[in-house]
Structures are given as C-alpha cells and as structure tokens.
Design brief:
Blueprint (H helix, E strand, L loop, with lengths): L16 H16 L6 E8 L5 H17 L3 E8 L10 E8 L4 H8 L41 H20 L1 H8 L7 H14 L9 H15 L2 H18 L8 H20 L8 H18 L4 H14 L12
Parallel strand pairs: 1-2
Antiparallel strand pairs: 1-3
C-alpha cells in the first residue's frame, strides 16, 4: 500500500527479499519498457522501520537482479526519504536513462545539493565487481587422487546424488516451515540452492574420484548456500575429501566412507561447536555415524536400512530433547 494507506497493487503472502524485489522490478520494468542493455538510476526509500541490514539486503537484490537482466544500475540511492509512521516497508523507484537524455540526468543527479536527506554521494555508484556464478566461473579442476570408482559405482553414485537433491528440492517448502519455528524460515531455500547447484553441475562432476567429487561439492556449497550453512557444509565435504585422498585403491569402501564421514563430523563439531544432544543436525549425523562404526564389525545384510533407521531415530530424538546441561 502507499505511504498514506492507499490501496496497493495486490495482496500476497509474506515472501523473501528476493521474491519481493523480483515482483516489484517486474512491474516497474514492464511499465518503463526496460530491456537488456538499458541503464537506470535507482532510489530505494525506507518507510522508516526497516533496519540498515534489511535495507542493504533489498538494495543488493535490486542491483543483482537488474544486472541479471542486463540492465545497468548506473546510480543507486538508498535512504530514509519519505517515511510512513515508521512502517516496515520500502519504495523502489527507477529512472530510465535513455541514450539521448541519460547523461543529462546523471549530471543533474551528481550535482551538489544542500537537501539534508538526499543520499547521493560516491557510494551511490555501484561497484563494478560482480560475483560470477559457480557454473560459469573458471573453476580449478579438482585433483583426482585417492581411490577411484568403476563405471557401475559411478552410475550408482550419480543416481544417489540426483535422488537426494531431487528430494531436497521437493521438500523446500516443508523445510522452510519447520525452520520458521526456531529460525528465519529459509532452511529449505538454502538447501534447495545447494541441491540445484549440484544438479546443474552433475554431468561435470568428478564421479570417478570421490575425493575430487567431495571437493567440488564443497565448492558448490560455499558458492550457492552462503551464510553459516554454506561454511559448515563446505567444511564437512572439504574435510571428507581430504580424508578420502589419503586412502589407496583396493581398501574396503565401507571403511573408507566411514572414515570420511567421521572426519567431516569431527570438523563440524570442532568449528560449529555443536555436539550430540544440542538439538541440531549433529544429532542425526552422530547417531548415523555411531551405528555405521558398529556395523563395520558386524557387516549385516541390511546395512543401509539400519543406517537410515538410525538416522531417523537420531532425528526424532530431538523432539523432546533439552539443551545439554538440562538433560539430567
């Protein structure tokens, strides 16, 4: 709605900054008939109650999305220009800079002014440094060392990755809903970006060498997930890759994968500070790893079924769990 309570364009459910910016830019770009290779000046107005962090996220999304459409934001102005009783909202305004008048507008915008709230300064010129998507970046080929897999094993590995990623994508909304109970409601979206990154690169991954493969997956996690999750997943797979690289061909694969799993889990506990009993994903991973170690000695026929069952058991144990220190 408008700053004076005017009716808005439509009512929608609360979405992420990315979704809302996409919706707003779509309407504006259509109204201005913006196309690839056009240039614009942008004003982002804070209604009064958005934090600087939130406003920065919106500005970042606008710049990234415009550049993804090959529309260059030549100037970006962000600030508290017109408030509405400290409402939590924002205005996004675009000025189309045509070939004939663009330079004139820029000259006027860059003129010095005594207007107290005008945010124009050197920071209104967006950085020319852009982040290159992982799939388009010049990637350093992972060193193919350690054990190697035969063609049948590679097909199995590829199938497992594909099915796991598809399951994550399918459960995005459900995971987000679970995360809203104790977090910011984006766990599913974060994991989906990771899964999509793997699926988009699946045919180019080093399936023949697990150590190289885990290194590549670690890079995808770091590039696509972002935040703490990206760092932790990257640590887990990087540590696992390093452990896999130390084994020689012909060693027992179940033992090799256990060592990689345990090594990655130990790294998560070291740097993430969470332990079994803290009601985190570590509870599921630790239960699975513990059962894995037990079954290495037993070698049962239902090896993978028991691993899956133990993973669910570890997950379900968090339902009534209290933080460590309160369990006694």
């Amino acid at each position: 709605m408008g700053v004076h309570g005017e009716a808005g364009y439509e009512r929608i459910k609360l979405g992420t900054a990315s979704v809302l910016v996409t919706l707003m830019l779509k309407r504006i770009c259509e109204a201005l008939s913006l196309a690839a290779n056009d240039s614009v000046a942008v004003i982002v107005n804070n209604f009064g109650a958005l934090s600087q962090l939130e406003q920065g996220i919106v500005v970042h999304e606008i710049v990234i999305q415009l550049r993804n459409m090959n529309i260059e934001p030549v100037r970006v102005y962000s600030g508290v220009l017109m408030t509405s009783l400290n409402s939590a909202g924002m205005h996004v305004s675009l000025l189309k800079l045509t070939e004939s008048d663009g330079d004139v507008f820029i000259k006027c915008l860059d003129e010095e002014t005594t207007a107290p709230c005008w945010p124009g300064c050197s920071y209104s010129i967006p950085s020319t440094v852009t982040r290159i998507p992982f799939k388009d970046a010049e990637k350093k080929e992972a060193e193919k060392i350690g054990i190697s897999l035969n063609v049948r094993e590679q097909r199995l590995f590829k199938s497992c990755l594909k099915n796991a990623c598809a399951a994550i994508v399918e459960q995005e909304a459900y995971l987000n809903e679970l995360d809203r109970g104790c977090g910011d409601g984006d766990c599913g979206s974060t994991l989906k970006r990771f899964a999509d990154g793997i699926l988009n690169n699946l045919d180019n991954l080093s399936l023949s060498h697990p150590a190289a493969l885990l290194s590549e997956i670690a890079n995808i996690a770091e590039e696509h997930m972002g935040g703490t999750s990206g760092a932790l997943y990257c640590l887990f797979f990087t540590t696992g890759a390093k452990k896999l690289a130390s084994f020689k061909q012909g060693e027992n694969l179940r033992h090799v994968w256990f060592c990689a799993f345990r090594s990655g889990l130990n790294c998560l506990e070291k740097y993430g500070k969470a332990r079994a009993g803290d009601r985190t994903m570590i509870d599921t991973m630790d239960a699975t790893c513990t059962m894995y170690e037990i079954m290495l000695k037993e070698y049962p026929n239902n090896f993978y079924d028991r691993l899956a069952a133990e993973a669910w058991k570890g997950c379900d144990s968090t339902k009534d769990m209290k933080p460590n220190g309160d369990n006694n």
